[in-house]
Target: Uricase
Amino acid sequence: MGIVLGPNRYGKAENRVVRIVRDTERHEIRDLNVSTSLRGDFAAAHTDGDQSQVLPTDTQKNTAFAWAKKHGISSPEDYALALGGRLLAATPVADGVTVKVEECAWDRIEVDGAGHDHAFVRRGGEVRTTTVDLTRDGAQVVSGLQDLVVLKSTGSEFKGFLRDEYTTLPDADDRILATAMRAEWRYVPGADAGSGRDWNATYDAVRALLLATFATTYSRALQETLYAMGRAVLEAHDEIAEISFAAPNKHHFLVDLAPFGLDNPGEVFIAADRPYGLIEATVTRGEER
Amino acid sequence: MGIVLGPNRYGKAENRVVRIVRDTERHEIRDLNVSTSLRGDFAAAHTDGDQSQVLPTDTQKNTAFAWAKKHGISSPEDYALALGGRLLAATPVADGVTVKVEECAWDRIEVDGAGHDHAFVRRGGEVRTTTVDLTRDGAQVVSGLQDLVVLKSTGSEFKGFLRDEYTTLPDADDRILATAMRAEWRYVPGADAGSGRDWNATYDAVRALLLATFATTYSRALQETLYAMGRAVLEAHDEIAEISFAAPNKHHFLVDLAPFGLDNPGEVFIAADRPYGLIEATVTRGEER
Amino acid sequence: MGIVLGPNRYGKAENRVVRIVRDTERHEIRDLNVSTSLRGDFAAAHTDGDQSQVLPTDTQKNTAFAWAKKHGISSPEDYALALGGRLLAATPVADGVTVKVEECAWDRIEVDGAGHDHAFVRRGGEVRTTTVDLTRDGAQVVSGLQDLVVLKSTGSEFKGFLRDEYTTLPDADDRILATAMRAEWRYVPGADAGSGRDWNATYDAVRALLLATFATTYSRALQETLYAMGRAVLEAHDEIAEISFAAPNKHHFLVDLAPFGLDNPGEVFIAADRPYGLIEATVTRGEER
Amino acid sequence: MGIVLGPNRYGKAENRVVRIVRDTERHEIRDLNVSTSLRGDFAAAHTDGDQSQVLPTDTQKNTAFAWAKKHGISSPEDYALALGGRLLAATPVADGVTVKVEECAWDRIEVDGAGHDHAFVRRGGEVRTTTVDLTRDGAQVVSGLQDLVVLKSTGSEFKGFLRDEYTTLPDADDRILATAMRAEWRYVPGADAGSGRDWNATYDAVRALLLATFATTYSRALQETLYAMGRAVLEAHDEIAEISFAAPNKHHFLVDLAPFGLDNPGEVFIAADRPYGLIEATVTRGEER
Model:
């Protein structure tokens, strides 16, 4: 056997595209972080330094900004599909392209009870994401959010777990449950690569459903909570094929105040940084066992 | 001349205190990052390794958590004043103590149109801060916020500036103005160390005023905008003696789309990371010149 | 079709394990960041909140620290193999376990020309990594490094690339090439799960070879440089089956000093943060085409 | 009393200046992060939006890069003094200017036992710093380092400290002492603003002395260690007037392995993130009491 090139791809990461829509005096803003990556038969660039089939990452960057103007940004998904299509068209040897977008939300600044026309304050909180993967045969869209930080101050337990000789954790009947969630849902492929979909409406609906399910589900483990959240999303959204979670269990430890003559019935906690539990799960459609 | 100990202080930084108020089924949450620091005659610890007058940083930590229970956290300012008073009382050789608090806000998760009793989502956006400095003679309270990210998509210019042979910047008649602001306002000392003040109401009012002034002031430079914001706060709040700003000018550069046959009348920008302008200014009370 | 649980796993991430070996007066230190994750039939925890087969992440943490004592840390790989074996043994329904380790290196502080017995300074620079994946059938070891920041001030070009109407980049005959490299090499499975291997010696040899190849290879693109580095490693190390790279092209842009009457023949650069090129490639063994 | 402008300054922060010296085939590299800030009578910019006396931050950036060529970078101090002088000269109403520089060190990549001519690997570890403050009357130079991470695995105790009812910490006879140090030393003003000084040699000497003193001083508290380090520097360097430290006590907690039937005589520790002790001290010249 010899030594050969395996899987490879290349692109421009973290293009900070800010698009102002100023067709009227009431401006709109979209604030994106865009990464593109092409894959295909780029072997000659690796083995012979031959760039003749390599669309430069600088050109990918230019295209990302030009498409913010030419195509506009009605949603991250719609923009990513268009941008990916262009990059694939411009690169004959490419088999596929991945476009990742992170979006920060902005709110209008409130002045005298109304949102201002052209002044905004960044919302903070979670980042909306999409990863669009295009080949010559079609598109796959996976949308989601990251760093959605949620906490329940009661309604969570963890007990009856497997024990071995290294287990010191006591059963917990009532604890804080907190996580900084990443969720990604994969859309059922559309005949039209999803061009008719209202991606923004689905995003808002899924986000609201995730939050409400987190709030209202009694939790016997973070695993159970994630599964309930995933179920709720799949039940409500036929257009979603699958949803995946990565959820650090951000531990809040009850502080022992007894040495100071104080009781602490679930009132004072220390929030820990590391280590943290990390729970990952996918909820999908299939035959129940 | 010999070699001597100069200014010194010590404490525990970044205690992550989370306090749940669960007196009723409708819980409240306060999420703080607390740092304490004592100063005074701690020379013997430095020169002779004598710890007999040194209240351990571990004890300062314990006290920060105990006070979250004993005194509670109606506001960062009120809690910091109480905690600082305790630490000063417990450390005879201390002349002064500084307590810094950063607070993250949480919102109730909305379920069926109403906020949930015990499930929360972290708001994101700016962090509320306070720095309380106590001596045996009194207290100084400086409150503020950091990382308030604001942007105007028009209503900002920068022109007529000083030029030298290294100046290449053209005049700008219409640009994006954006910053991640830090503001800190110093309260007029109160007879009672401010114990009767409604710190939360003032915070909300100042924050709203800063935002509204940013939105509605035409900007001929970030300096002018900051000064206007400071003036507005001092005019509205007699209890505030002074306000200081540190405001990175987060540059958004208009992308040149002309090579691609596209015009770009203030629509597509690249958000830059570094370098950034950094404007710092204090607005205070005094005799006008 | 119904809604079912898909792939899932859970564990404790970022256990900061510091191990001092003090059998003699000349101490040794290993400074690790350890993450473990179990997978298998944990469906009941998700669907019914039944934890009876779930070894708590807290127990995984305890085991990580206990194994630093019981088994010791002669290398990240050796420790990870032992820890993974224990976790798999302790969890009957687990099919597999992944143990990831990041290691920071420390040097002895030099005193009078010799390394001190028990005082250390952290080396900085790259982090050594290993990811060990164990199933009931065997082990896979992937070792590497991340954040190895390297730069060539000449000996790099980029030209003759594919152009379209969004291409503005000129050919570059002589540029800075810089990257913060992540490399991961997969070991050929050993009959004994690698227990006889000298993981530390291989790490040092591969690191040196990556650096020397980077330095001495004329670069017609970062892709070519990565491929050369991978080839060199596979040629020299039969025990390595495959090596993968993720390499951000950290752009250094030549500053235009002509407006100031200064030439700039490759002397003054601005280092950019974002966007950056991102090149990913695997070099493997196989039939050459 | 009216409302007036208080202290203010402005500039360009974090210019990432990379300078290659390529006068011979053996290149040199300096990798700086440069921030400049002007102060003086800039009131009109704040109150009237009048920029006529304001040298743009963009011009400050241009000058930082031009000076890397015109003046060169023999040391951060020398470059900062020259750059500051230029900015002050170019801005009539400025009273003073501050130039801050952070420098990352690079090593030559070793090939066949020798350092390569034009290939480098970033050293990591501590960052060298300087803050030069210039007025029309003279210069003050404060140099230092930050993030020098050091650890002693024995030779450190903490006991006999002040106790109150919130003290639970036991005496420690033998503990890990670790910190990520920031040190800054102020130079005695020179008749020539220090232009004849060998800043690089002093930096290397102070760094070595700090490390050696940390290593060889038995520590009864971090305070005592810092004071010893400061004394050693002032005793050896007449050109240094004062040295200040900020040193987080990076706690390493001994893990209780007794529940698992294992003893742990100072061998296995968990490195904690937050909270941390924070010790700040200045050692200066003056009359001993």
